[in-house]
């Protein structure tokens, strides 16, 4: 509720200290903010609260009321508290004036020990082979709150193991603690009510209907929110122990939403991407398509070294030779004889330098290749380019597609003699091998080998989103930063460096941009140069873009901070009519 | 199996769907499942899909139901389907030998029914019979009981199994005349010679006069009379009815619903079934008066699935009342529209809990809701204000209008007003129902005079005074009240005294155990009930109820270890007060009180030393079989380490 004036503050006593919280704060959150973390399993701040795990029991009290219906104040001037004899859950109540809470007390500890024991008696002792080990709430809390001995002498309840719920998610029912987070996620967020409980009591079992699979495009979020190792990603299953993973904050570049992510890597190999909370972008979710869209970075088809066509054959070359060769081949043509196909997947820094490249060659025919798909009403954007907004802001995107058509025709007619493609396959806009065959000069900067690169004069291998730094502006106008999670393969180079070197080689180090703001030694320098020219970036540096991004545009003409509306609030399952 | 749904069946389904607001079609899930099963014998995958499509739901929504409600079958039953009650009163009266006899005669191998909640129905090789154990059928006073298809057979001695199967046993029982200590109000016509369920009979006996009187009063006046009467809920919690009703704002904008809780399934309780089966119009009149008082236009009677006859009787009663313009559009010509719909449960005890009931009525698994925020009077059925009252409670409303609240309040004792029906079952000579002025009869009078006392040569050992959830009392105990000490026999049967002696009046189900009973056996029977009926939603009850049952079962089988009584007690302590609904207490109180009050019975079955800890050198079976078990202290548990996760898990 950004428009509301000051939210009302209420006084709450937590573990003997009075705090103030805005009205409407969930008690369990208030406790956490006050430094008294309350363990929980079923509660998830973005989902409805069923209160079923009972792990968050605390002692609660209301202010004692005098005969005048006003709170009785103690010697410290604060209300005296009437403690309830029974423990209460903290996940389903909002703070209220004068509320008292004890999160540390013999009763609370006993409650937690009790719940932990109940959760473990029927739980298999699978930790050594469980993917969740290391980030399992059951493991974690049991060390902290569990009892040391076991007094359960009975047989454990048997349940199905290795249930394939869908193409990407596998379930081990014996590990499931029946918190219902996954069910609620599917119903409330993914709008695909596929999961449910069958049977009853201790035999209750999570499942999907035999005739229906968990295959919606958000299915892997259930794996993230499952507090134990019951739901696992079929992709990640058994591949890597999580504690070996290095984590890098980044964002997904598979559509204009730009969901914030953590990239989990080890020794330059990406093992997984998981969503990172950002209420202005993706809440705590991401789609499966984006999440799994990183395997191409490791494909066999990766371009690993620069190549120059000699004697009608692409031959490996050194970087200086390749750059020099590209420059030499491009320079003879005048502006209208050259075209540049840029990409909405390029970072702002790369786009900026692409702009300089165009300037140095006098090119006017430059555009990005649109990439669209079907949008859902959850996160996935119809614009599958992550940085269309950046390309527009830097005036590299025509938006209409007429420029692309012009380029295509001009290649065919022979007007265009030199084509540069930056991270795009020209086939995408109808420039087929027959077209390319007409070009005397074709310079390619790209990740993967394909039919087009095979026809290039010069091939400049570059880096993928997880291998470099740089910024993009998402569909809602938020400037976000990619961070390098892994090193690029072979001799592939960071795109901005390639572009910088190419510009310098063409303009002989005397380019206008060079003169404008000095040397471009780091990508920070590129950002600085860009920020001097682009008012939207004024006052920013690449490093200063927070992990949650900065709002720089009013995306879609709408005002600033525009997280998907429904993601912001917990949507209660049982909404009053 | 065909998915060809005959038009007639679909028409019936559409009619059921019409009983709920149009945007709440999901509510019709259970009714449709019942209709499907009645027609096709069981619910196939095709049925799940068909019903889901019909109601605009996902198949999983329906699948969740058929695995929650034990009456819904996924495979065909025999041509005759037998349901034998296995709960405490019936078990004491021979339900287990009865089951053995039936299984032998029908050649059904119950061993292969499998463990777990949902035994697939066991069918005899010739397909003629299927049998299953079910939980309390609300006829504990005539134990043991057995349903053959929709018909209840009472007092079915184990020896009469052949007659039962042969069809030569007749259903029904004798109703003794009221005992002189009784004060009959609600049960005036129960068991009365010549009294029928017809509306004409009811009208001849002064029926619907109170409704006619009530609609001449203002709403506030009726609510006030109920408040003045001091009527406390008869469903179990004893909450003052008038106080509950006042939660409904007179100017409420949302629709207000009334739900009559006819789920009667607390073991030991069998009063509502008599009202429903013998005096349906009394209930309908009580509901209609309450509807008028609370400005309710739609009332639902949630009737347990095991009362199929009762549902038919009530359905007919509602139609008769409609024909007499007591309900429907412009009822009684006063411009008030009111409808009563029946909603049948399907065999889940937790549907008696009011928020579980509401979820069930909304077409979901009967998962009780957290309170706060979902107090029925505020966010009840369809998130609208809802009053849930027990069958008997609603019948009392009629008598409050007849007598006036103040006059009614003179019955019984202060804060424990009116009459109530107590149901006595178990080890007494004359089990049955007795309507008494609350508190005007003592435990001793009830058991020894009204119910005929213990069987010959026996002494009363223990009594569970308010349904199986109530804490057990020892017959040789004395109890300290505020200003005096009383013996067990002197306990007045009222809400406050039963609470003061550490138990509760609950649902009025008094279960008597004599000195022949092993309390571990009795507790195990009760534990089995709760383990079976826990909805499984919240951790302590879900895991604890089954654990307690496993412990008592092992103790009974000879595998009890010295630690068991303490563990039992502690497990129960870890449930009570920490769950979503009062089922947590309901399942913990028996264990807490049995272990507490009968330490000798438990010690006698807990003799083996504590075995070495996990990984189980001893399985439960081995514990039972072994006589010599070495003891190892429990200070450190190598089990986790062996599992490879030292210091974790
Ligand atoms: C586990 C459980 C089972 C219950 N079963 C019943 C029942 O079968 N019938 C009933 O009327 N009330 C039952 N109740 C009580 C209801 O929740 C509710 O309090 C009652 O219907 C209110 O009506 P009253 O105020 O008229 O008693 C049960 C409560 C619990 C916790
Ligand atoms: S699978 Fe995981 S998220 Fe789903 S109910 Fe079980 S424990 Fe909870
Ligand atoms: S919605 Fe878009 S940005 Fe988010 S994960 Fe999916 S593809 Fe990536
Ligand atoms: S206490 Fe038992 S019955 Fe009640 S909600 Fe919890 S699990 Fe279900
Ligand atoms: S977090 Fe599960 S009950 Fe509160
Ligand atoms: S009917 Fe069998 S115990 Fe109640």
Keywords summarizing the entry:
heterodimer; A: 577 residues; alpha+beta; Ubiquitin-like (UB roll); Alpha-Beta Plaits; Rossmann fold; 23% helix; elongated; B: 649 residues; Glutaredoxin; 5-stranded mixed sheet; 27 helices; 39% helix; globular; binds flavin mononucleotide; binds iron/sulfur cluster; binds FE2/S2 (inorganic) cluster
What report would you give on this structure?
- The complex is a heterodimer of chains A (577) and B (649).
- Chain A is an alpha+beta fold and 577 residues long.
- Chain A folds into 3 domains: 9-104, Ubiquitin-like (UB roll), CATH 3.10.20; 129-135 and 154-298, Alpha-Beta Plaits (2-Layer Sandwich), CATH 3.30.70; 307-557, Rossmann fold (3-Layer(aba) Sandwich), CATH 3.40.50.
- Chain A is built from 15 helices and 24 strands.
- The radius of gyration of chain A is 29 Å and the shape is elongated.
- Chain B has 649 residues and is of the alpha/beta class.
- Chain B folds into 5 domains: 7-66; 80-166, Glutaredoxin (3-Layer(aba) Sandwich); 199-410, Rossmann fold (3-Layer(aba) Sandwich), CATH 3.40.50.11540; 413-514, Ubiquitin-like (UB roll), CATH 3.10.20; 519-604, de novo design (two linked rop proteins), CATH 1.20.1440.230.
- Chain B has 27 helices and 19 strands.
- A 5-stranded mixed β-sheet of chain B has the order 2-3-1-4-5, covered by helices on one side. Chain B has a 5-stranded mixed β-sheet with strand order 8-9-7-6-10, sandwiched between helices.
- In chain B, strand 15 (460-464) and strand 16 (473-474) form a beta hairpin.
- Chains A and B meet through helix 2, helix 3 and strand 9 of A and helix 3, helix 4, helix 21, helix 22 and helix 23 of B.
- Bound molecules: flavin mononucleotide, iron/sulfur cluster (3 copies) and FE2/S2 (inorganic) cluster (FES) (2 copies).
- One iron/sulfur cluster binds at residues 176-182, 206, 226-228, 230-231 of chain A.
- One iron/sulfur cluster binds at residues 252, 254-255, 257-259, 282, 286-287, 289-291, 379-381 of chain A.
């Amino acid at each position: 509720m950004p428009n509301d004036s000051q939210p009302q503050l209420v006084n709450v006593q937590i573990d003997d200290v009075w705090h103030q919280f805005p009205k409407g704060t969930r008690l369990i959150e208030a406790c956490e903010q006050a430094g008294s973390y309350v363990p929980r399993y079923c509660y998830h701040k973005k989902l409805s609260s069923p209160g079923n795990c009972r792990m968050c029991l605390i002692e609660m009290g209301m202010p004692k009321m005098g005969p005048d219906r006003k709170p009785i104040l103690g010697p410290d001037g604060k209300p005296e508290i009437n403690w309830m004899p029974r423990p209460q859950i903290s996940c389903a109540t909002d703070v209220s004036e004068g509320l008292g809470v004890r999160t540390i007390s013999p009763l609370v500890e006993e409650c937690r020990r009790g719940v932990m024991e109940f959760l473990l008696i029927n739980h298999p002792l699978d930790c050594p082979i469980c993917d969740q080990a290391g980030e399992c709430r059951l493991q974690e809390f049991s060390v902290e709150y569990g009892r040391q001995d076991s007094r359960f002498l009975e047989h454990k309840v048997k349940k199905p193991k290795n249930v394939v719920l869908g193409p990407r998610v596998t379930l081990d029912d014996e590990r499931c603690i029946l918190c219902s987070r996954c069910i609620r996620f599917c119903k409330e967020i993914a709008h695909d009510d596929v999961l449910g409980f069958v049977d009853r009591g201790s035999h209750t079992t999570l499942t999907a209907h035999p005739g229906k699979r968990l295959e919606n495009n958000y299915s892997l979020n259930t794996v993230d929110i499952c507090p134990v190792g019951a739901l696992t990603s079929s992709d990640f299953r058994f591949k890597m122990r999580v504690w070996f993973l290095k984590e890098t904050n980044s964002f997904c570049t598979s559509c204009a939403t730009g969901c914030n992510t953590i990239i989990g890597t080890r020794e330059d190999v990406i093992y997984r991407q998981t969503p990172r909370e950002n209420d202005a972008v993706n809440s705590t979710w991401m789609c499966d398509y984006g999440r799994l869209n990183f395997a191409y970075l490791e494909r066999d088809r990766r371009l690993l070294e620069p190549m120059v066509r000699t004697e009608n054959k692409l031959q490996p070359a050194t970087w200086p030779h390749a750059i020099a060769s590209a420059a030499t081949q491009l320079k003879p043509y005048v502006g209208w004889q050259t075209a540049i196909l840029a990409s909405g997947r390029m970072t702002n820094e790369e786009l900026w330098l692409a702009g300089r490249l165009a300037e140095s060659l006098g090119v006017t025919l430059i555009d990005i290749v649109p990439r669209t798909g079907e949008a859902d009403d959850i996160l996935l954007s119809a614009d599958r380019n992550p940085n269309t907004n950046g390309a527009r802001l830097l005036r590299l995107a025509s938006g209409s597609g007429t420029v692309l058509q012009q380029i295509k025709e001009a290649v065919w007619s022979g007007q265009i003699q030199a084509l540069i493609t930056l991270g795009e396959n020209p086939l995408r806009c109808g420039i087929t091998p027959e077209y390319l065959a007409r070009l005397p000069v074709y310079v390619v900067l790209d990740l993967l080998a394909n039919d087009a690169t095979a026809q290039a004069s010069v091939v400049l291998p570059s880096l993928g989103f997880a291998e470099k730094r740089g910024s993009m502006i998402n569909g809602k106008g938020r400037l976000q930063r990619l961070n390098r999670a892994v090193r690029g393969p072979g001799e592939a180079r960071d795109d901005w460096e390639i572009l910088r070197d190419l510009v310098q080689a063409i303009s002989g180090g005397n380019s206008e941009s060079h003169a404008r703001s000095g040397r471009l030694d780091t990508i920070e320098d590129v950002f600085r140069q860009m920020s001097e020219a682009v008012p939207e970036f004024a006052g920013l540096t690449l490093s200063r873009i927070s992990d949650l991004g900065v709002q720089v545009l009013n995306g879609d003409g709408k005002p600033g901070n525009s997280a998907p509306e429904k993601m912001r609030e917990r949507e209660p399952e049982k909404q009053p009519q | 199996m065909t998915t060809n749904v005959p038009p007639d069946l679909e028409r019936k389904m559409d009619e059921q769907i019409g009983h709920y607001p149009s945007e709440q079609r999901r509510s019709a899930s259970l009714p449709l499942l019942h209709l499907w099963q009645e027609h096709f014998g069981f619910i196939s995958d095709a049925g799940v899909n068909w019903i889901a499509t019909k109601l605009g739901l996902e198949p999983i929504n329906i699948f969740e139901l058929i695995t929650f409600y034990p009456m819904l079958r996924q495979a065909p039953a025999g041509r005759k389907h037998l349901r034998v009650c296995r709960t405490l009163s019936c078990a004491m009266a021979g339900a287990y030998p009865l089951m053995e006899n039936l299984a032998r005669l029908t050649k059904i191998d119950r061993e292969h029914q499998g463990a777990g909640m949902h035994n697939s129905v066991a069918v005899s090789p010739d397909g003629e019979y299927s049998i299953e154990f079910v939980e309390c059928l609300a006829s504990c006073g005539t134990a043991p009981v057995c349903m053959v298809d929709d018909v209840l057979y009472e007092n079915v001695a184990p020896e009469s199994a052949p007659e039962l199967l042969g069809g030569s046993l007749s259903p029904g029982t004798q109703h003794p005349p009221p005992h002189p200590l009784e004060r009959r109000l609600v049960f005036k016509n129960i068991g009365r010679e010549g009294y029928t369920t017809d509306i004409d009979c009811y009208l001849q006996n002064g029926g619907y006069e109170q409704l006619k009187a009530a609609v001449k009063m203002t709403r506030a006046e009726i609510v006030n009379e109920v408040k003045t009467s001091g009527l406390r809920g008869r469903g179990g919690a004893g909450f003052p009815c008038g106080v509950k009703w006042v939660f409904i704002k007179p100017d409420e904008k949302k629709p207000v619903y009334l739900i009559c809780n006819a789920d009667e399934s607390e073991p030991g309780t069998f009063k509502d079934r008599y009202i429903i089966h013998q005096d349906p119009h009394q209930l309908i009149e009580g509901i209609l008066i309450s509807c008028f008082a609370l400005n309710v236009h739609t009332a639902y009677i949630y009737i347990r699935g095991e009362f199929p006859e009762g549902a038919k009787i009530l359905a007919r009663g509602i139609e008769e009342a409609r024909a007499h313009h007591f309900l429907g559009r412009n009822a009684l010509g006063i411009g008030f529209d009111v409808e009563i719909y029946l909603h049948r449960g399907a065999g889940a005890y937790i549907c008696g809990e009011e928020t579980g009931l509401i979820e069930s009525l909304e077409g979901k698994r009967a998962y009780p809701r957290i309170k706060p925020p979902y107090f029925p009077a505020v966010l009840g059925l369809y998130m609208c204000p809802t009053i849930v009252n027990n069958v008997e409670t609603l019948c009392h409303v009629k008598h409050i209008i007849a007598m006036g609240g103040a006059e009614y309040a003179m019955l019984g004792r202060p804060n424990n007003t009116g009459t109530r029906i107590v149901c006595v079952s178990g080890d007494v000579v004359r089990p049955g129902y007795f309507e008494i002025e609350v508190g005007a009869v003592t435990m001793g009078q009830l058991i020894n005079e009204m119910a005929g006392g213990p069987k010959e040569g026996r002494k009363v050992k223990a009594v569970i005074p308010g349904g199986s959830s109530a804490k057990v009392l020892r017959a040789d105990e004395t109890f300290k009240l505020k200003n005096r000490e009383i013996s067990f026999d002197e306990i007045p049967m009222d809400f406050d005294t039963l609470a003061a002696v550490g138990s509760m009046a609950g649902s009025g189900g008094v279960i008597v155990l004599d000195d022949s009973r092993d309390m571990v056996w009795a507790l195990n029977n009760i534990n089995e009930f709760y383990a079976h009926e826990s909805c499984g939603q919240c951790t302590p009850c879900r895991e604890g109820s089954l654990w307690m049952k496993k412990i008592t079962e092992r103790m009974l089988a000879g595998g009890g270890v010295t630690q068991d009584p303490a563990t039992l007690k502690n497990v129960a302590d870890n449930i009570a007060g920490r769950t979503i609904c009062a089922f947590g207490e309901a399942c913990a109180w028996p264990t807490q009180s049995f272990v507490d009050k009968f330490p000798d019975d438990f010690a006698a079955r807990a003799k083996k030393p504590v075995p070495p800890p996990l990984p189980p050198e001893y399985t439960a079976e081995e514990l039972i079989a072994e006589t010599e078990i070495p003891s190892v202290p429990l200070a450190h548990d190598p089990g986790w380490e062996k599992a490879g996760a030292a210091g974790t898990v």
